[in-house]
Known about the structure:
The chain is of the alpha+beta class. The protein contains 31 helices and 25 strands. Helix 5 (99-126) runs antiparallel to helix 27 and helix 29 (833-867) packs antiparallel against helix 30 (878-905).
Amino acid sequence: MVDSDPLYHDPPPRMMRILRWFCADIYLEEVEGDLYELFQEEVEEHGLKKAKRNFFFTGLRYLKPFFFGKKDFTLQLEYHLTMLKHYLKIAIRQLTKQQAYSFINISGLAIAMACCIVVLVYVHDETSYDRYHPKAENIYRLSIRSLEVGDQNDVNLIAASPILWGPALKKDYPEVENYTRFVPRTSPDNPWEVTVGNRSFSEARILYTDPATLDMFNWPVVNGDAATALDDPNTIVITEAMAEKYFKGGDPIGKVLTIDPKERDREGSLNGNTYDFTVAAVLANVPERSHFRFDFLLPSSILNDVYGGDINGEADISPWYWRGLIGYTYLELKPGADVEAFAAKFEAFQERYVGDATRSRGYFYEPDLQRLDQIYLDGERLGQMRPVGDKTYIYVFSLVALFILFLACINFMNLATARSAMRAKEVGLRKVVGAFRKQLISQFLGESVVISFLAFTIATVLAWLALPIFYEYLGKELFIDYGREAPFLASLLVLGVIVGILAGSYPAFFLSRFKPALVLKGVYSKTQKGALLRKGLVVFQFMISAFFIIITITLFKQIRFMRNYDLGFDQERVVVLPPNIARSLSSQYEAVRGELLADPRFLDVTMSSQVPGQPGRGGDLYVEKGADIESSFSLDETFVDYNFIDLFGLDLLAGEAFKERNLEEEGAEEQEVVAVLNEEAVRQFGWANAQEAIGKQIVRDPNAKDWIARVIGVVKDFHSESLREEIGPQALIQMPRYGFMSIKLKSADLQGGITTIQHTVEKFVKDVPFEYNFLDATFKEQYETEAQLSRVFTYISMLAIFIACLGLFGLATFTTARRLKEVGIRKTLGASVQDIVILLSKNFALLILIAGLVAVPFAYMAAEKGLEYFAYSINNSMDTYLLAVVGAMLIALITIAFQTIKAALSNPVESLRTE
Length: 915
C-alpha cells in the first residue's frame, strides 16, 4: 500500500558515503540533491522499504556519468610515489652520511636474518616429511610401547610391531580400511648382492611389502602395472634410480634381477642360493622428506616360506610371530574414525591373539598409533627405518633464532633513539612546515625497511653459505627442490618487511612524538628521555649473551666429563669386528684366535653376543631359584667366551672368572650354565653383598625355565651403554651365542695390527667385506649429538656476543661523541687518561654486570634441566657462571675500549672549541 501523504525520508547513508568518496567536490551538492529527490519519489510511488532496496542500484547508475569527475586518484598516486621517492632519498642519504651507524645496523640485521633463514629452512624441512601422501591424515603406523611387568616406568618405544597384527586388525575392526607391512631383512651390515648381466652391486635397502602398499601411499608408478606389481612372489618393484643403475636407461619391465641374500649354513658358510625376480613396475624415487628408505620392494608372500607359515594368520605359523617385532605395520583408518577409541580396543585384541605369551616373559605391549605425517617428529623409537628428527631441535633453534633477531632489532632501536637528538631538529622543522605525525612515522618506517632489505640481501648470501655447514653439524643431508620450494623461498621476503617494521616501529613513534617548539629551542638535547630504555635493552642483550655462554660452557664440561669418565672396563686398543664378520668366523673361532695370538702385536681375542657401546643389547626375565615368580625382573644378558672379563679388564669383586672349556664337546644336557653378575644385579636380587651371591642359582624365564645358571662371580658395575643411561642389572653368561669378535692389541702399531687382522679374516672368510671399529672411538661417538649441539651453541654464543657488541660499540661511539666537551673540561682540570677511560666505561661495565647477574638464575635452571637428561652428569660449579659473566664483561670493555681511549687521548682544545 502506498502512503497518500508520505513523510520526508533520508536515503540510505551507506550509498551516500560511497557517492561522496567517488564524486568530485564541485559536483557533489548537485548529485546529492538529485538523488534525494529521486529517493523521495521512489518512497511516494513504491513505499519506504522498496525505495531503500532500489536506491543502491539507482546510486550505482547515477555514479557513472560522474566517475571521471571524481577526485583525481592519478594525482594522489603520483603524490604518494613522489613522497616515497623522497623518503628513499632521505634514507640513502642517512645511510651514506652515518656509515658506522649503517654498518652496525645492516651487519647486525644481516647476521640475525641469516640465522632466521637457516632455521626457517630447517624447520620447513623437518615439518614437511611424508606430507606428500594424499591419505596421510588417515594412515597410522602401529608402533609399540613395551612395558615391563611390575615397573611400568620402564618403557621401550619400538617402531616395529608383530607381523600378524595387520591382517587380524583388518578382519576384526571396521575402522581399518586397509593395511600394509614392510619387513626388512637387509641392513648396512648385511647387504644382499643384486645382479643383472655383468653388473652386480651390494644393496641394503630392500623391503618385503604387501600389494596394498602402492594403493595406500603416493609413490607414482612410472612404468608397469601398480595393481598387480606385488601379487606374484616372483616379481619385484624398483625405483627409477635403480632402473637407471641396473638398466642404463633401457626398459626394465620384464627383465630379471638375480638376488643373492648371502644365506649361510649352521657352520657359517655361504650356501650359494640365489633367486630370480622379474621387474613388474618402476616407482618414482621416494622423496627425500620421507621416513621411508628403500630401493627395492619384494612381495610379502615370499615370507610364507621364510617364516614357515601364512603371514596373514590364515594357516599354521609359530605363535612367536604374534609377539615378535620384525616388521612395520601401517593401518589406513576410515575417514572420521575415532583413533583413541580404536586404540582402546587393543587390550582385548591382544588378549584374544597373544594371551599371556608376553606377560609371562615379564613385559606387555601397548599400541602407539603414529599418524603418517607425524612419524618423523614423533620422537625416537628403537628400530626406525631411518633416523628421525627431534622436535626439541626445532624449538631450541627457533627460539635461538628469534633471540638473535631480537638482539639485532634492539641494536637498531638503541642506536636510533641514541641518535634522536641528531634528528630532533629535522623532525621539528618538518612539523613546523606542515608534516603530520603519520607522515613522519611512514618516513622512519620506510628508512628501517630500506635498511632491512639491504640486510636481507646480504643475509640471503650468508644463509646460502651457512646452510651446508649447519646441516653437516646436525649430521643431516641438505636437500632443496627449488622448483617445489619456490613459494616457501619467496615467502622469506616477508622476513625483510617484518624485521624492518619491528625494528623501526619504536624509533618511528619515538621520533615522530617530538614537540617542535621544544626541539627547536634545543630543550630535547638536554633531557634524559629514553636513556633508561636504552640501558634496559643493553642489559637484555648481554643477559641473552651470558645465558648462551653459560649453556655452552656447561655442554663442553659435560662432554669432557663423559669422554674422560671411568667406564669400569678397559676400552683402549680394542678392535671390534661386527656381526656380519664375527658370525662368519664363529665356526672357525679357535683357529682364527690361535693365528692372531701367534703374532706378538695381539694380547687377546674373545667373542661375545654384545660389546659395551655397541648396538644389539638384550635380555630376559630372571628370578632366584625357589623365589616367587613375582620377584622376577629383566636382566641384561651378554653371552661370552671365558676370557671376556680379562680382555675388558672388568674388576672382579667376589668369586671367580670363567674357566676355559669346550662347551660344544660337553653337550647341551651335561653342561652347567654359569654366570657372573654385576653389583646392580646383586642388589636387584636382594642379596646383601657380592660374597653372598656366589653359588646362588638364577632361573631364566620363570615360566619357560630356559635354564638355571649358577652365579660364580660378581664384577664391579661397568657402563655397557652411554652415560645417559643408568647402569642396569647385567649378567655375563658363558655360552657360545656370539655376535662380535673383540681383539686386544698389545703394541701401539695400530695400523699394522689392523692390516694383520684384515689378512687373517680374508684368509678364513673370503666373501665378506672387511669392517672394524675401535671400541673407544665407538663409545665416544655416542656423544656426537651432544658434541654437535655444543658446537652449534658455541657459534650461537659468538653471534649473540658479536651482535650485542656491535650495538654496544655504536652506543659507545655516540656517548663519547656527546661527552667530548665534558672530557675536554675534565682534562684541562687535570684528569688523567685512565680517569677518563674509567669515567666513560664504568656505566657500561655496570650494565654488563647487571646483565650477567640476571642471566645466572635463568641459565642455572636451564643447565640443570638439561643435565637431567644424563644419568651421570657434572656438578655445575660457580666457576661456570663466574667465567661467563667475567668473559662477557671483558668482551664488552674491549669493544668500547677504542672509543673511550680515543676520547681520553683527544686534544681538549679541539673539543672545547667545537659547538
